[in-house]
Known about the structure:
Elements: H1 3-15, H2 23-35, E1 39-43, H3 56-72, H4 94-107, E2 119-123, E3 129-134, H5 137-146, E4 165-166, E5 170-171, E6 178-180, E7 184-189, E8 205-208, E9 217-220, E10 225-228, E11 232-233, E12 236-237, E13 239-240, E14 245-246, H6 249-270, H7 277-283, H8 287-291, E15 297-302, E16 308-311, E17 322-324, E18 339-341, E19 361-363, H9 365-373, H10 378-385, H11 419-422, H12 426-437, H13 442-456, E20 462-464, E21 471-472, E22 475-480, H14 487-497, E23 498-501, E24 520-522, H15 526-531, E25 534-539, E26 542-550, E27 554-559, H16 562-570, H17 572-575, H18 578-587, E28 591-593, E29 602-604, E30 608-615, H19 617-623, H20 626-631, E31 637-641, E32 658-661, E33 667-669, H21 671-685, H22 693-697, H23 701-716, E34 722-723, H24 725-777, H25 779-795, E35 799-801, H26 808-812, H27 818-828, E36 835-838, E37 841-844
Parallel strand pairs: 7-14, 20-33, 22-30, 22-31, 23-32, 24-27, 27-30, 33-34
Antiparallel strand pairs: 1-2, 2-10, 3-7, 3-9, 4-7, 4-13, 5-6, 8-9, 11-12, 15-16, 16-17, 17-18, 18-19, 20-21, 25-26, 28-29, 35-37, 36-37
Amino acid sequence: xxxxxxxxxxxxxxxxxxxxxxxxxxxxxxxxxxxxxxxxxxxxxxxxxxxxxxxxxxxxxxxxxxxxxxxxxxxxxxxxxxxxxxxxxxxxxxxxxxxxxxxxxxxxxxxxxxxxxxxxxxxxxxxxxxxxxxxxxxxxxxxxxxxxxxxxxxxxxxxxxxxxxxxxxxxxxxxxxxxxxxxxxxxxxxxxxxxxxxxxxxxxxxxxxxxxxxxxxxxxxxxxxxxxxxxxxxxxxxxxxxxxxxxxxxxxxxxxxxxxxxxxxxxxxxxxxxxxxxxxxxxxxxxxxxxxxxxxxxxxxxxxxxxxxxxxxxxxxxxxxxxxxxxxxxxxxxxxxxxxxxxxxxxxxxxxxxxxxxxxxxxxxxxxxxxxxxxxxxxxxxxxxxxxxxxxxxxxxxxxxxxxxxxxxxxxxxxxxxxxxxxxxxxxxxxxxxxxxxxxxxxxxxxxxxxxxxxxxxxxxxxxxxxxxxxxxxxxxxxxxxxxxxxxxxxxxxxxxxxxxxxxxxxxxxxxxxxxxxxxxxxxxxxxxxxxxxxxxxxxxxxxxxxxxxxxxxxxxxxxxxxxxxxxxxxxxxxxxxxxxxxxxxxxxxxxxxxxxxxxxxxxxxxxxxxxxxxxxxxxxxxxxxxxxxxxxxxxxxxxxxxxxxxxxxxxxxxxxxxxxxxxxxxxxxxxxxxxxxxxxxxxxxxxxxxxxxxxxxxxxxxxxxxxxxxxxxxxxxxxxxxxxxxxxxxxxxxxxxxxxxxxxxxxxxxxxxxxxxxxxxxxxxxxxxxxxxxxxxxxxxxxxxxxxxxxxxxxxxxxxxxxxxxxxxxxxxxxxxxxxxxxxxxxxxxxxxxxxxxxxxxxxxx
Length: 847
């Protein structure tokens, strides 16, 4: 597509941006953007920060690949390497973007019950764009001046005067006052035969300033992103306003000149490295790589020197908490330029280097790594990063299974229901054939079928065990398997498998006589579960009056991604009471709240609820914390495997659906089972048992056995209302397999934790050895520095400040000696040493 034609196409596309909460149309809009060559990035709702929409498994695989690449490259810190996120997740791949959108909507659904607003951005370089970013009216005027546009002449409208996208501005996070407003983005398409400078040396951005820095607008062309319609923040929305243009020659030339000049400065700066190992490391390591392992975030904007600015964690009046100077910087002609911190608070993990309460202070790359990974120990950081000791490199010390899937969940064997279970009843054999005909796991289809059956039962259908109150048959099932093993497929297959016959609604004690089939809904917040049963009805005596009340008694819940549900359960605030609500729903307790406003009051009684969740081993292990085991959350699930080695090579005959007549009343244990249930309940009530983790996992076993036995009777022998020992034996087999599957997840987690502890231990041993070798190898330098430090302290009267702009470290030692000076000071300030260090103060030890 010609650049000019593409420009018109993009302008039209932006003008048709949908509402941010219209997810179906947003999905089509994203696909059209990608097809137009735009590299799309998801942004957290209401913000300007990139959102990582990768699944946990994808993120783990990406991290592993990044670690392997780092190891091959000889990096000692390969085990700490993370795969690039943020801007690196921008893509033109439509399938990936569809998956990201689905996960985005699901992840933030509980936070935005009225609809998740989708924020989007494009990465300019990957989209073949140059964008002029003006934050303020002054910067807009500077842009007009550069283009010789007289924006104030009445009746004269230059086509380049209107920004492509109007931006909503930014309020001060502390005062609430406008930090900038009246700005916009001007888009330009890059012709196919034009190549702009790229790579770390160019930084992909520059500032074209006027007489003051505040008038400088940013020019973005590589590895930068801009938000686009329909994105919305608290200050307002991003709106299409003007055209997209082809890149003018003068702007292309300015970008090329700036990129070439910066690359030349960077090369000149790097020539100063000489043989210094630490400087050599710093010259080839970007601040983005270092800060990626902190909570600092790139603003996407550059400082006047052309280097990127970053925001520190916490609330700050200005987004520019620091400037990350890189080689080629016009301000700092160094091979290893520093991070200049501007914020006067919340600069962790770098506060250690703030001297004398300074509002602004520099941090070197070595200092930064020492703060992030070594508790500010420069000696340990230096020896780990220096490549002067190749015999200590980790490349030869990789574990034998590094990079292989054997350490991941994909190869972990998952327990299966035994052959004798499936041959115990013709109905079970039917279910197995149906699952195998569709190439699904028989265990998973059975588990989903039990959930679907439980949700279709009338609330009056309970199991009477002779102990305490009759139990509801509300059932939770977790289908466990790695990505792509068919968890969702098995769930949907259960809908094709079961055909329910509801019978005469006038027979029996039905509570939900008119509530035949339950709605199938995703799992949201705790109030959302209760809300699923609620509705608005018209008062029969006054048609103008409407009341909120419980309008249904059956609900079927399903979650494809168990990791999101687990996050909500673990983080109660985020999950809005989803954990307590599900635990209450499993027992049949009253749901909702009666003390809210009229429109929010919910009181749900007499209901049937089924929940089917797709778990990966990692998510299941994450659910089984000590706290959740104490609460009884993981014990309420029946776990079935999404994989099935018994699926035959040739498809069996299609057995067709299974007709299940539904009962109209409770089921009961026979006399033998009632006596056994009483004995077991009496032992528990008397405290005749331990409190081990195994006992915790069995805390709800009697109730699970009763529910599963009753459901199997309804499924396999419709019309029978008495549950016998044979039914319980089948239920016990199902739950034994479930327990083994849960233990597989726990063992997987224990192996991962043990491997991580071993890795950390070996890392600490290597650090200690490397530190000793490095310092011994420079014994003469250390002795010289020791003498200098002691002399400076004595000349100052016995007390000095070490760090900071006026500290001894900066004023008396050159950049190359400072890291070793820190190590020398550490030796002098040991317990019996001649110096004492108290924070930033160093003094002579008093005998």
